[in-house]
Amino acid sequence: MPKLRLRQAAPVALVAMLLLTLSACGLTEYPNTTFHQNTEFNTAVDALFDRLVFWGTIVFVVVEVALVVTIIKFRKRPGGPAAKPIHGNAALEITWTVIPALILVLIAIPTVKTIFETQAEAPAGALKVEVIGHQWWWEFRYPELGIVTANELYLPVGRTAAFELKTKDVLHSFWIPQMGGKRDLITNKTNHLWFTPDADLPSSAWNGFCAEYCGSSHANMKFRLFTVQPAEFEAWARHQASPAVFSATPAPATPVVPAAQVTSTDSTAPVAAPSTGYMFPKDRLAAEFPHVIPQTPIPAGITFDDALLAGGDPVKGATEGFLLGGCIGCHAIGGVPGAVSEIGPNLTHLASRHTIAGGLYVNDAPTLARWIKNARHLKPGSIMNTIGKGEYDPILKTTNTMGLDDRQIADVVAYLMALK
Amino acid sequence: MATLATPTPAAVAGSDAKSGLWSWLATTDHKRIGTLYLWTALAFFLIGGLEAVMIRTQLARPNMGFVSAETYNQLFTMHGTTMVFLAVMPLSAAFFNFLIPLQIGARDVAFPRLNAFSYWVYLFGGILITLPILFQAAPDGGWFGYAPLSTPAYSGVAPGSSELKMNMDFWVAGLQVLGVSSLAAAFNFITTIINMRAPGMTLMRMPMFTWMSFVVQFLLILAFPPITVALVFLMMDRVFGTTFYQVAAGADPLLWQHLFWVFGHPEVYILILPAFGLVSEVLPTFSKKPLFGYNVMVYSGIMIGFLGFGVWAHHMFSVGMGAVADSIFSLMTMLIAIPTGVKIFNWIATMWSGEIRFTVPMKFAIALIAMFTIGGISGVMHSSPPADLQQTDTYFVVAHFHYVLFGGSIMGIFAGIYFYYPKITGRFLDERLGNVHFWLNFIGMNLTFFPMHFSGLLGMPRRIYTYDAGQGWDLFNLMATYGTYLLVVATAVFVWNFVRSRTRGAVAGGDPWQAATLEWSIPSPPPEYNFAKIPTIGSRYPLWDLKDPSWNADPSGHAVPSDPSDLQEETASHTAKALGIPMPYPTAKPLFTAIGLVVMFGGLLLFRDHHAVGLTILLTGAAMLIGGLYAWLTSPLE
Questions:
Q1: How far is it, in rounded angstroms, from Cα A66 to Cα A68?
Q2: pLDDT digits (tens, 9 = 90+) for B141-194
Q3: A29 closest CA partner among A155, A281, A207
Q4: What does the DSSP 8-state code read for residue B291?
Q5: Torsion-angle region of residue A336: left (phi > 0), alpha (psi -120 to 50) or beta?
Q6: Which residue in B323, B461, B466 is closest to A119 by CB distance?
Q7: Other C-beta atoms within 10 Å of A50: how many?
Q8: CB interface of A with B, residues 126-185, below 8 Å
Q9: How many helices (H) does chain A have, and how many strands (E)?
Q10: DSSP secondary structure letter of residue A340
């Protein structure tokens, strides 16, 4: 009987599906999971969630079992008992009002406790980080350390990071699932969030996301967090605070940020900073944290002669290309006179980053060349102008008759790649 | 039974043999308007479903290129807007229209022409908001339209150019138009329920669907003003350059969020309570038992509606309101779980000791209990703000509210459609196809939405048009996409059944399910005038009392038996005229007035670009609106 078969097949399929889901949980890795205890913040969240799951499961089982038992036991069948006109039962109804209320009390108490714990003032000595949202990339500033960077956040393990969250345009939301809950970036307002990466964490890489819808490239507004050992952080910070290492013009007499300011803030273990500073090792990313490496394919329809990249002239790129391309109108480079605009990401140490374009692409010469040539083709809605000569601008819907040819772009790429 | 004049064969369908396009354009009959709502809302349900299919296809695998980012953003905005405002709310409205007068023993709603107006405004508002998707210009700021993304600075012109970007204008105008429709209908139904109940139909004898609808109408009239204010502000910002939300002028974008969610949370109950009402009709009928704890069911419905206004900021735990506000809104939210839980347990208790018949509507009603429970439990999980900070704006929330809205509202509405289709059309929906639909729908729904719990808790944000491989989300997304395709098949089976059964379904009598309430005492489909003689009601379950007075289906103790002669189905149908029942004249004045309203908003949309043309159209629309209203109000109803 086909009718019977269908009836039997459906629950079987449902159970099989659930089993598949559950088995999948054990087999694969989940690099952005929210179930972890990497920070005190998420340890609290996780404990609360465990309690919610515990009571939720009990309620689920009680309700569904009661439902299934009822519909099996009282299905109409020949010779079965006749329906009884029961209208209600005050005692029963009070019972199933009071029991859920008690369960909710057991949830409410730790909830309120955790709210006040996690929203308290950040502990003294926390590392202050300003997070500024832009459509669609992240600006990170360490005001005490004189660092301005983009899309990649470094934090020392074992020290509380206190974030000041702001936005230059629309709402965004700052979220690193592996560190704890999210907090929105609200225009004309400063929000706060803090957590402490566990002191025992080995140096690691994590994904961060924008979690509040913010327009065309909301999905492309990602960032990376590197939780590193204090000494590594120190080396990174010292280098990031220094002006650009490559300059076609003579370096200014005094560094933009006095080195003394950098060392005075934290350091217990002085580190001899290598000239290129610290950068989370690329080979470790590939081996241990492949999920933080962007996989966005470069859209079809954009060509670049990669052979030109080898011959790019960084000096020409710095002098001619950076100006002709209009880069200087939006991007700052520490130590370069005139390059002070804050519209786009700060490029002072661009080559020390693993990603570009709001974490959308890997930071290498071929990708960077294509990005410069036609950013709007690579990232929907990007306000970065189409720089390549003869390129079609998908926003202005015109072909760019000015701009840089491939050779000039290769020069700019050579320059930017020198900004270690 | 009323004394009958000679039956006329032309009146088999119970109407004065009215047919043709004009009879629909000019109708003021609540049943016809209900049918129009049903067909229109189902059409929008299919459009919203198509949008969902495109969304899921794009997300089936990492870095798919099925649609662009811009198109995706329009799709998810329109999927939410369509399903909430154009599908589920009007599907409920279809039942309000069709059922409320029948359940309370009335011949029509209080204001039949206003009722027609509500429908036409809904139809035109729906078209206004949906049509732009054909021109890649659909709203793209999310169904929640958060400022400042929805303000002119960020969505007024195409980025980097001065080309006017109208997408969010359609949304702002369309929602205002739809609000007019909802408000007019809500006042109409409140007046109807308060004033037009048959003799003996006390409030506490009303069928549960009418009760839940009654609560919903109050939610509508209290929830729509805040969003109307919010939308008027936004429209002023967009069209006239005011600065309610313009951040460059120092506006606080949280103003929008508060106003929106003061509407938005009661809206959830506007979407779910009618479904609760429908299953509260279905479960007793097929358990052959009165509803367990009728009074408590009424009070819990009122309680849910009341508390629903005090929890809006639980949508905003991540905006940084502070620990005190977070705690208060968290506790208020948890409180709602109590009356909701009571409803679940009372439904199960209704079936306990019954004789359960597993008809298709019953299966959908049982599925609502099973599925809504899951949505309710995940709801409690994000009523706890610290936990919510890991859940909000992730797929966990998407899973949660789809269990509430698909597992709750849609299951309940399908239960209602299968249950009332015989009353509406006079024919049954096919049982076999119905079973296929039910199981495919049930499995498809779980396959689509259950994996989203996992992808969300494993870090997948909402509203992203694409994602990288290896994030731990691939399998769950693929499952969800296959589930959606299964839902497409399920819906196709349903549509086939729905269309085919109108002419080929088995003929149903006046009371095909052996149900208990008034709407089943009249023929199917009901005659134009509903009740040849207005019945006098003595209990909550008049038809059951009639069959077996000793069974006493009314627990109030002081129930008087309904007059049996009122409740026997008529053996023949007659025209209203023959029975001497005055009926409203058909009139297209409400339609004309509704066109005027929409033309007015259309003029406002054009005003941004072409002041003179826009203003002319706006004034023309206003003149039509005022003229139509004048002609309508100065002509007699019947």
A1: 6
A2: 999 999 999 999 998 887 666 778 889 999 999 999 999 999 999 999 999 999
A3: A207
A4: P
A5: beta
A6: B323
A7: 12
A8: 135, 169-171, 173, 175, 177-178, 180-184
A9: 12, 14
A10: B
Least confident of A5-9, A394-398, B243-247, B620-624: A5-9
Determine whether the interchain pair A187/B247 forms a contact, defined as Cβ–Cβ distance below 8 Å. yes
Phi, psi of B241 (to 5 degrees): 75, 25
Classified by CATH at the fold level, domain A307-418 comes out as Cytochrome Bc1 Complex; Chain D, domain 2 (1.10.760)
Tell whether A294 lies on the interface with B, counting CB pairs under 8 A.
Answer: yes
Mean pLDDT of A377-394: 90
Predicted confidence (pLDDT) per residue in B468-493, tens digit: 999 999 999 999 999 999 999 999 99
Contact A86 B352 (CB under 8 A): yes
Record: contact B374-A60, CB cut-off 8 A: yes
**pLDDT value, residue B40:** 97
Which residues of A are less than 8 Å from B385 in CB distance?
Answer: 111, 115
Give percent of chain A with pLDDT exceeding 70.
86
DSSP codes of every residue in A188-219: T--EEEEE-B-TTPPSEEEEEEE-S--STTGG
pLDDT in tens, A282-291: 999 999 999 9
> E strand or H helix at A356, and its extent?
strand A355-356
**Beta carbons of A220 and A360 less than 8 angstroms apart:** yes
CA separation for the pair B137, B216 (Å, rounded): 33
Q: What is the average pLDDT value for chain A, to the nearest integer?
A: 86
A109 touches B: beta carbon within 8 Å: no
Q: Phi first, then psi: what are they for B603, rounded to 5°?
A: -60, -40
Amino acid present at A377: H
Q: Do B319 and A191 touch (CB under 8 A)?
A: yes
Residues of A in contact with B468 (CB under 8 A): 291, 294-296
Report the C-alpha gap between A418 and A64 in whole angstroms: 63
3 state SS for B382-413:
CCCHHHHHHHCCEHHHHHHHHHHHHHHHHHHH
ipTM of this predicted complex?
0.90
A204-210 and A147-150: which strand pairing? unpaired
Domain topology for A127-254+269-292: Immunoglobulin-like (2.60.40)
Report whether the peptide linkage leading into residue B148 is cis, meaning its omega lies within 30 degrees of zero: yes
Q: Stretch A40-54: mean pLDDT, rounded?
A: 93
Domain locations along chain A: 35-73+90-120, 127-254+269-292, 307-418
So what CATH class is B14-314+333-586?
Answer: mainly alpha
Query: Which candidate in B30, B289, B343, B427 is catalytic?
Result: B343
Catalytic residue among B37, B72, B119, B143: B143
Active-site residue, from B27, B81, B130, B280: B280
Assess whether B473 carries a catalytic annotation: no
Choice among B29, B51, B108, B326 that is catalytic: B108
* B109 contacts B33 by C-beta, under 8 angstroms: no
Q: Do B472 and A183 touch (CB under 8 A)?
A: no
Q: Encode A218-255: b = buried (16+ Cβ within 10 Å), e = exposed.
A: bbbbbbbbbbbbbbbbbbbbbbbbbbbbbbeeeeeeeb
Is B453 part of the annotated catalytic residue set? no
* Distance of alpha carbon B259 from alpha carbon B145, whole angstroms: 11
Residue B62: which residues within 8 A CB-CB, separation 6 or more? A295, B466, B467, B468, B469, B470, B471, B474
Q: Is pLDDT larger for residue B450 or for residue A336?
A: B450
Whether B326 sits among the annotated catalytic residues: the reply is no
Six token digits for residue B265: 């949370």
**Residue ranges in chain B whose pLDDT is less than 50:** 1-17, 558
Is A49 near chain B, with CB under 8 Å?
yes
